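Schema walkthrough. Field components (list of strings):
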Amino acid sequence: MNVIDLNCDMGESFGAYSIGMDDQVMKYISSANIACGWHAGDPLVMNKTVKLAAENNVGIGAHPGYPDLLGFGRRNMFCTKEEIQQYIIYQVGALAAFCRVHQTKLTHVKPHGALYLEAVENETTARAIAQGIMALDPNLYFVALAGKKGETMRRMGEELGLKVVYEAFPDRAYTPGGTLVSRKQPKAVISDPDEVAQRALDMAKGFVTAVDGSTIKLDVQTLCVHGDTLGAVNLVKTIREVLGANDIKVLPMGEGS
Amino acid sequence: MNVIDLNCDMGESFGAYSIGMDDQVMKYISSANIACGWHAGDPLVMNKTVKLAAENNVGIGAHPGYPDLLGFGRRNMFCTKEEIQQYIIYQVGALAAFCRVHQTKLTHVKPHGALYLEAVENETTARAIAQGIMALDPNLYFVALAGKKGETMRRMGEELGLKVVYEAFPDRAYTPGGTLVSRKQPKAVISDPDEVAQRALDMAKGFVTAVDGSTIKLDVQTLCVHGDTLGAVNLVKTIREVLGANDIKVLPMGEGS
Amino acid sequence: MNVIDLNCDMGESFGAYSIGMDDQVMKYISSANIACGWHAGDPLVMNKTVKLAAENNVGIGAHPGYPDLLGFGRRNMFCTKEEIQQYIIYQVGALAAFCRVHQTKLTHVKPHGALYLEAVENETTARAIAQGIMALDPNLYFVALAGKKGETMRRMGEELGLKVVYEAFPDRAYTPGGTLVSRKQPKAVISDPDEVAQRALDMAKGFVTAVDGSTIKLDVQTLCVHGDTLGAVNLVKTIREVLGANDIKVLPMGEGS
Amino acid sequence: MNVIDLNCDMGESFGAYSIGMDDQVMKYISSANIACGWHAGDPLVMNKTVKLAAENNVGIGAHPGYPDLLGFGRRNMFCTKEEIQQYIIYQVGALAAFCRVHQTKLTHVKPHGALYLEAVENETTARAIAQGIMALDPNLYFVALAGKKGETMRRMGEELGLKVVYEAFPDRAYTPGGTLVSRKQPKAVISDPDEVAQRALDMAKGFVTAVDGSTIKLDVQTLCVHGDTLGAVNLVKTIREVLGANDIKVLPMGEGS
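Field assembly_structure (string):
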């Protein structure tokens, strides 16, 4: 029987500002990537989100980003290797504290936004993130991009001895080469719930249909889903149902093996 | 033989901004209160300061403050009990991460600046801080003001079951009632190194001479010293020498008993 | 014929975070208090909101607050007189720049949240705000609380020579003494749209019905309304209609005299 | 008789953190680039620095940077054109407010650190900065890099109709092609005061000696000097004396023509 993880960014509210439908989406996912107060989130939100995840038996991950609340961590910043490593330790450590408070454990780390994208492109950034995680806790899973494009990021984690979890995006189109179609292209994002759910099922089985109709292999352990709108939440629910109907178990990272 | 701890605020630099003579003062103290990035400090500074403390066998404490870098945490902010508790968990957790990275342990928590002063005045604030520490790790020492004025703060910690460490200030004048003379008064701060060192010695022995010449009892386990100027560092050195010459051992919190 | 101003807090979104229904409410108000990037707002939001106000012939005001984005400026901070004065100059100056860019003028300043409340209570704070405004531009209107409770704030502005505009809250209950009923009291906030609109009309005519049924005089030039929910926007619309149906002209500060 | 401007970054202190010897260096320069609170500086520092500059008849400029206090504005951030333009308006507007308060005028704008370097490399960034300045006040001078490398930046300013001031660095080595030798090269920075002063004199006369000994023409109206150490201040003093001894007048931007 196949197993897959559904991960979603959570805890992105900040002070008086609210983003996301965390209460709703937490019911359908198996892993939550929780913002750590730098690009989003704050201590009250982190506390509440960790608690909510624990109550729903959802695996808890840190979602560290650049120090850029104004840009929601979506803008690349030229940080040194040393800066990135220490920023990771700080943010992951802060989130881990809330896990201790709620007597649950921190399972994984997934870099956020521009930091994730830079880790895909840039070996130095990927290694700095991995080193930060490794220095703090070698048992943490490191979420990295599945497919050809994610090779560098995954290799940086694996060379250091981290357990790397391969992530794919069921709502994104893939090239025959196994990379994501750029968001600048017309059909980069797939919005039909049934189609996305079918792709999630395919990915859980180890393959995906590329834009040219060819079937490509894709080694995937976690699928990234969204929870910022009601439509997004319903999509996650659909994915979950389709996976269940096809005997794919949805479990947090590390619990499927 | 008597034992006392010498604690000093450390790691208050931020990005390109430098404050304090940490390298110098670290040789003479036994506990470092390290800023956690909210009122001062940043991940690189935290990492470096934890490492420096560990290398010098100095006990490591978190020094959490209000979210007010612009005011260096010296301005009171009307935060709720819930806010204070979660801010403590976040900041202490972030510092604890750097301790794990350097395979050393976090020993104590001392609130910074206006947060400390508010905890002295306000039972709710003191309890919120203590609850944050307790929720995270009940083995952490909670540094609280010695003397009459510090009763509320100490009680809040002790009622929760925290190990409270009583702190006095050898360079500050005390009233016959055992409280600090307000800084607004002319002779509130003592600057003569020999006098301060003598007072440190007295405090280590359990008493202090008040402004009226009377000798009052003061239950003290840690003395707060400063390291922001060359003069301050020399003063700490003098205190350390005078304590040593009088067979008072200087040890981190918890190592003397 | 009577004239009144309807003012509303605007431009409180920040980066990826959205608050308020500015596009909707801007049609019904005559003055916008625009956040200046410290407790809320950012340069893009300020630019957009100034443009929107100008297009709707709405008077533009700066809405400066404490440096506390995390607390949305709703927590009191113990700032010095000097700090408050310079914070006002900085924030009002930044907003004035966007007015110049859009070839419109800055009309008024209304302190936000905890800074406003502190100005009501504390003469030093009120004077520091007024001095900041005066130093920058003596032609700016200073919005201050109407009624007995607002006397200090208004006097501080008027003593310096500022043009002070008296503000009342149609959705808040008033005591027979002419002060706001505390929000901790059960009927402090009035939610029925017709009742609020009637009170707005009364206020425009110079009086208000207190909680004991007595009618008290209230010297008012501007009414504070809200625009953060659809219900709030509809309430503003109702107020505007009732004022219009009763020959009360709704005009920005200074345009009615 | 020749005229040159000496500009220096000023007002980079923040809260309790102090950087630079502004009081000393202000006596020898003719233009101050004052930080605007984003990468450095705060309202109190801005107020004090504007006052100090005005008292010394030093031309006042805004020195806007990226929203990155932690990185002191020295790290490139991928901002959109719209973001950069509005960030410029915000920061320059805030500084202009302090000029109004001190009844003096804002003369110029010089982007700081990574924003300056990006403007040199990237036409879009350079234009966005120039558009922000233009939208706010077309009379402000725009400081741009002199020499071949600065062509794009200068052209973006000039095409929009801004008055562009060409800036050179007397303590930096130049290639025969008229560009700065990279800091990664061994002799990129010149530290001998007499040599730097001679180069400043040459630049004021319109030329510079390149690393290969050749003399190249360089159209320059302002020279960038530093004031962060006692040595730097003495260097500025030496430059000023050498210029004076050679009948080169040191005047703020725009006052020489």
